[in-house]
Amino acid sequence: MTSSLLTYPEMFQEFKIWGIHTKKKSVLTLTRYKQEIFSFLEFLTQHWGKPIEHTSFQNVTHQDIRSFFAWRMGQGVQKETNAIAFSALKFWFAFLKTKTLVTEIPYEKLKRPKCRTSLPKALSLYQTRRLIKNFYPETIEHTSGCSLEKEPNALSQSSSIPWEDLRDYSLILLLYGAGVRIHEALSLNRSHWPLQDPWLLTIQGKRHTARSIFLLEEVRTAVQSYLTSCPYGYQKDIPLPLFLGTRGKRLQACVLQKRLRFLRSALGLAHHTTPHALRHSFASHLLHQGVDLRDIQTLLGHVSLRSTQQYLHISPQALSSIHKKFHPRSSL
């Protein structure tokens, strides 16, 4: 039995618009929430033995929600996933209250499932250099070495490299060299890319916040080499994405994720070697070089300094070194 509410996509479209423009949630967050809401609706349909209508939510009690999570735990769903579902349903009922479909939110007697805080992991400087150097060893390594220490114009001298490889190489350099999120990079259009000094790139981050980042010369050179080789050009009245797929559409994150999975297996790197790990590495490596935490917060586009602190992989030895190096009384 399927919930009849699933046949009303306009309600979820309104939910998405409300979440983006009123609550400043990202599209990815709302997409994830929608999956958990659908799961809850399907459970309620089975639990009540009848389809769910718009007016049905007024009858949902906290016991129904407890039953939902008890059922999920019996299915082996992890606490972290249940915590996301809890947030999704709480957000959903807040939306329903704005629509006067419920008068009370059945969450007052419930607490969010507790789960372990999983700190993000960064790559070491050695691992990062090794990853970049070997990103495409059969085509790129002999021309530039793919190291951040090589000549920045080496890539532009090679015309034999497939444009898709130049694209992925320039993308991975952008993720690490500027600390951007993968979806931030893939949402860029060519009109966003700076063509002159001061080489500032404006990024639209979470909750519609914008930040400007400086582009390293090697990143600029790699992207320009890719753009020169890319066979797809300008289309009238259509914004052209900066990073394109093989068929000329906006590149999907799974393409780079797949290549990274293959490469980390070939190089024996840890399972957390993902596109997002390059953003963590960007922040951690700057901190280890003595960059102020507030400056890293600005570069990452975090609203809260607490988010930046949780983002960084800091060893006790690194903290001790930074303390001794920069504290004004360390030399007394």
TrEMBL record:
Domain Core-binding (CB): 6-97
Gene3D superfamilies registered for this protein in UniProt: 1.10.150.130, Intergrase catalytic core
Keywords: DNA integration, DNA recombination, DNA-binding
Organism listed in the record: Holospora curviuscula
Segments forming domain Tyr recombinase: 118-324
Pfam family, one: Phage_int_SAM_1
Stated name of the protein: Tyrosine recombinase XerC
GO biological-process terms attached to the record: DNA integration; DNA recombination
